[in-house]
Amino acid sequence: MKSKMLKIPDTLTEKMNMLRDIPLLGIRLLLAYAFYGPAMEKWNNMEATIAWFGNPDWGLGLPFPELNAYMAATTEMVGVVLLVFGIGTRLISIPMMFVMLMAWFTVHIDHGWLAIASSSADPGVADRLNMAKEILKENGNYSWLTEKGSFVILQNGVEFVATYIVMLLTLISFGPGKISVEGILRYATFGKK
After folding, report:
1. Domain definitions of the chain by residue range
2. Which of 106, 122, 120 lies closest to 156, judged by CA?
3. Quick one: which of 104, 108, 124, 156 has the fewest CB in 10 Å?
4. What is the pLDDT of residue 103?
5. Which spans in the chain are helix H?
6. Distance (Å, rounded) from C-alpha 63 to C-alpha 167?
7. Above 80 in pLDDT, residue 17?
8. Helices (runs of H) and strands (runs of E) counted in the chain
9. pTM for the full predicted model
10. Is 94 within 8 Å of 147 (Cβ atoms)?
């Protein structure tokens, strides 16, 4: 006896495929936003960036710090522009992934997984946060300091870097989607496909 498989009607499949372009746009815009801040921080203070890239005592200790700083900052900024418009998405995602892998292995790997330290995973985090709160309550305007959010301990783990790498891999696999300059040009050149 043959097993009956659920078959989705072609029109429903087509409509579901159309929705795929919305998350691809979202991924591009989220990545552009995430890369914009670090790119501008590097460009706005390139001397400090070069020093941090090169110094083995308090920085990354990378060889050719000037070249590496300019390459990272340029990749990030060009990536922001290309991702926003959906131009050369697959191509720019490769060097952006390389920048993220470098960040993983030079900055984040020694700090574990979490970007923000968890009090439930490490009781020492809770102790430190409570001590900081007490100091701020005694010596500062605690309600003003916490008006925009609560204090956290930045662990600076690989969590966000790994997320960005997965998002970039998604763009390499699927491209920018139809809601992009590439998608519009493809439609104008080849028609509906």
Report:
1. 22-111+158-190, 117-153
2. 106
3. 124
4. 96
5. 10-19, 21-44, 46-54, 65-85, 89-103, 123-139, 142-145, 159-174, 181-190
6. 29
7. no
8. 9, 0
9. 0.85
10. no
Q: Six-digit token pair at 135?
A: 């100091």
Q: CA-to-CA distance for 1 and 101, rounded, in angstroms?
A: 52
The pair of structure tokens assigned to 10 is 């072609």
Query: DSSP letter at 191?
Result: -
- Which pLDDT belongs to residue 125? 93
**Helix ranges, 45-64 (H):** 46-54
Give the rounded distance of the alpha carbon of 22 from its chain centre. 18
- Measured CA to CA, the distance from residue 11 to residue 27 in angstroms comes to 26
How many residues would you count in the chain?
193
List pLDDT tens digits, range 48-96. Answer: 999 999 999 999 999 999 999 999 999 999 999 999 999 999 999 999 9
Is 108 in contact with 158 (CB distance < 8 Å)? yes
d(CA 191, CA 193): 6
Instruction: Name which of 136, 129, 120, 121 is nearest 151 in CA terms.
Output: 129
pLDDT in tens, 150-173: 889 999 999 999 999 999 999 999
